[in-house]
């Protein structure tokens, strides 16, 4: 696997492992939910550029790369979208195929019967997004091997999700001057003792201290 360093919340970086041959990602414990919005977008670009034409078939039993225990297939739900990953029973992390990551982030949706009928006019066979097997659209609407539906990247969903992530990243990296001023007025710093440079004037407020208080309040959910 290739290691990718991505920013995480509240601070620091996470190392995500990406396997181009398996079309999959390894997240250590809680790494997926701790990615910043910008990191999620960066990982989406990595997935887009990393998918090799051929993929390795996943073995029946997957070992945890940390403890070698057999990973456990797990179903999860993101809003109304179901996705699957394989988790370590000892909470070391999870193995997530590319397509499941895209489902988790709301980038994919199943095609409707009408859309499949239109697709048949131009394309007879598609490759299953789940296992890579061919799906004959003249006969099937789901993969015969893994039962995954015929699905595609939803341009509207991608645009909507990318906009939400970009807006979340903008808010995360922008100082709210109004809230900062309110925090300063509500919790003025204690007067400083006279030191080498004399006492501070009463209107010189501690921006850094108030900013730290805001961050602590946000992380505490207050």
Fold and architecture overview:
It is a single chain. With 222 residues, the protein is an alpha+beta fold. The chain contains seven helices and ten strands. It folds into three domains: 1-106, no CATH class; 109-155, no CATH class; 174-187 and 205-222, no CATH class. 35% of the residues lie in helices and 22% in strands. It has a six-stranded antiparallel beta sheet. A two-stranded antiparallel sheet has the order 7-10. Strand 5 and strand 6 form a beta hairpin. The two termini are 40 Å apart.
Label this structure with key terms.
10 strands, 3 domains, two-stranded antiparallel ribbon, 6-stranded antiparallel sheet, alpha+beta, 222 residues
């Amino acid at each position: 696997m290739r290691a990718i360093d991505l920013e995480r919340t509240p601070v620091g970086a996470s190392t995500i492992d990406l396997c181009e041959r398996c079309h999959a990602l390894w997240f250590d414990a809680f790494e997926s939910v701790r990615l910043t919005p910008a990191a999620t977008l960066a990982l989406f670009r990595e997935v887009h550029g990393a998918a090799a034409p051929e993929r390795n078939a996943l073995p029946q039993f997957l070992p945890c790369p940390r403890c070698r225990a057999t990973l456990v297939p797990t179903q999860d739900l993101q809003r109304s979208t179901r996705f699957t990953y394989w988790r370590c029973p000892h909470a070391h992390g999870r193995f997530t195929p590319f397509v499941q990551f895209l489902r988790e982030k709301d980038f994919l949706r199943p095609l409707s019967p009408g859309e499949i009928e239109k697709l048949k006019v131009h394309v007879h066979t598609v490759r299953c997004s789940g296992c890579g097997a061919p799906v004959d659209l003249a006969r099937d609407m789901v993969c015969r091997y893994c039962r995954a539906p015929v699905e595609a990247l939803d341009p509207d969903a991608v645009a909507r999700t990318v906009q939400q992530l970009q807006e979340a990243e903008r808010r995360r990296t922008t100082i709210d001057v109004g809230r900062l001023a309110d925090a300063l007025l509500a919790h003025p710093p204690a007067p400083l003792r006279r030191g080498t440079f004399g006492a501070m004037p009463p209107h010189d407020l501690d921006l850094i201290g108030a900013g730290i208080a805001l961050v602590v309040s946000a992380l505490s959910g207050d």
